[in-house]
Amino acid sequence: MRMFYGFLLAFVVSTATAEWKVPPDAMMTRWGKQVTPQNAWQEYPRPQFRREQNWKNLNGLWQYGINKSDRIPQLYEGDILVPFPVESALSGVRRFLAPDETLWYRKRLSHQTPEGHRTHLHFEAVDYACTVYLNGTEVGSHTGSSDPFKFDITEALRPDDNELVVRVVDATAPSQTLGKQSLKPKGIYYTRVSGIWQTVWLEDVPNRHFRMVKMKPRIAEGTLRVLPTLQGVALERERIRITVRDGDRIVGTADSALSVQIPDAKLWSPEQPHLYGITMELFDGETLIDRVESYAAMREVGVKRGPAGQIRMTLNGKVIFHYGPLDQGWWPDGLLTPPSDAAMRFDVDYLKKSGFNMIRKHIKVESRRFYAHCDCVGMMVWQDMPSTGGRPFWSKLAPHPVEDTWPVEQHDQFMKELKAMVNGLRNHPSIVMWVPFNERWGQHETVQIGQAMENLDVTRLLNIASGGNFFPVGDVVDRHNYPEPMFPFEDQRFNNYVKVVGEFGGHGYVVSGHQWNPGMRNWGYGDLPVTLKDYKQRYLRSFEELMKLRRRGVAAGVYTQTTDVEGEVNGLMTYDREVQKMSAEELSDLHDAARF
What we know:
The structure is a single chain. This protein is of the alpha/beta class. The protein folds into 3 domains: 32-206, Galactose-binding domain-like (Jelly Rolls, Sandwich); 220-296, Sandwich (Immunoglobulin-like), CATH 2.60.40.10; 301-592, Alpha-Beta Barrel (TIM Barrel), CATH 3.20.20. It is built from 6 helices and 34 strands. It has helices at residues 341-353, 368-377, 408-425, 446-456, 532-552, 584-592, and strands at 55-57, 60-67, 78-82, 102-110, 117-123, 126-127, 129-134, 137-143, 149-152, 161-169, 181-182, 190-191, 195-196, 200-206, 209-218, 223-231, 238-246, 249-254, 259-261, 276-284, 287-296, 301-305, 311-315, 318-319, 322-327, 358-361, 380-384, 431-435, 437-438, 461-462, 465-466, 476-480, 498-505, 556-560. Strand 25 (322-327), helix 1 (341-353) and strand 26 (358-361) form a beta-alpha-beta unit. Helix 1 runs parallel beside helix 6 (584-592).
């Protein structure tokens, strides 16, 4: 195997840090080969809420240690490259964290809070439970796999040298939101991920500042409501100014109502992904206190029943067929962490050039930069919630579905993470659908969770359980079928729902020299074709079957999948992204004829 499975690690090895280096036997992408401690994920991490002048990136070399103690260690074992998870090759460690072990991070930093400001410490994602200490003082804790969080560290900061310590526990347990992670990776389950796996950064904000914002476009009215939330003690002569721009041209401003008129608004779509720039300014009288840059799109998602009685999805009032890949976002060198921003964008750009108009982001929440890029290029996204490991009986679309019964604490944690995902990503126009459950994985309290989601976000469609056990809630009924797509039209229960094939295809093809581990079982759905020609013919046959279902009323299809992942060789590209089994040009020619 490419991964080192040993668990022999002493409580403390040395005070000296080992030189960071990637294991020589690791499968690397072209972007991973360019990573250094100086250039690892240096981009601004929050593109839709930008204060680019007063922030500091903390990615780079940290010290790490692994033990079975709750006490902050005095000595550390070596260097780890943040933000890559400890199990990944790019971390420089490639060490599996055992369920009963504790992962420690340590970094020394110098930072002084400007007068009249607060300093926030941001973590874009840490898997799974972490506690953060600054100069020996606990400044906060967080539990969850994927949502960004922050702590106000102003009071704990020293004017010169500071010691930042992060404690992480990750059992990779079925109760956690873990997606495809497994203690024993095999088949559709992959190498587990622990610890910091997205950017860590500092930001100085004024005492009174913008905390968040909600964007609410109204196409019929030609308005965009921009609703910021403020934090800190209110100012004496406080006022807000919102400015909306189309390129360099100001198209509207608001000083009080925060509802901006946009005459002849340009609508966002995959063909024309138009974005309006937004500046939010906070004043005390005439003195500027805080400024945040953002963007929004004029776009609305809905459904419409056609002449034949079938319900279709709409974008800005027009029927649109959704077609795209299952996209898992795994990388051979970084695991859940792409090796770079450019690498992450490469996948989206390849799919866009291939003529897909949608991505189903499969049981993973990406960095906020991913969704910003989808916003810019015009790629619709079905966003899955990272699944837990529970598995009730799979009754699929049967008349009498079943679901799990969960302990209150476990359900509450799931809902906390689900709401964090929705609230954190709700302004991205690219996201058009939420998917709380994949198949029946962790499916529980389905109707209640569906109702909560409908209350949380009325602007998007809800696919409560993609391929899972059907309950009458949400907008979508979703069938998975491999390798060829199918849908049970005869079931009258589905007449008031959008019908989709949420997974199909999965045709495998082995490209020699581009396998995660040539010694393990490499597989796809069905037997593996001998020739590339055969592989392409299978894709064409499955696509043609989907188009037949489309004519009968199916409104979307999701092909498995963008890339090979570990033992799965059913990607349109190899795991290292070096070989396109079907080029973007080939796929585009095929898809163009279908006119989505």
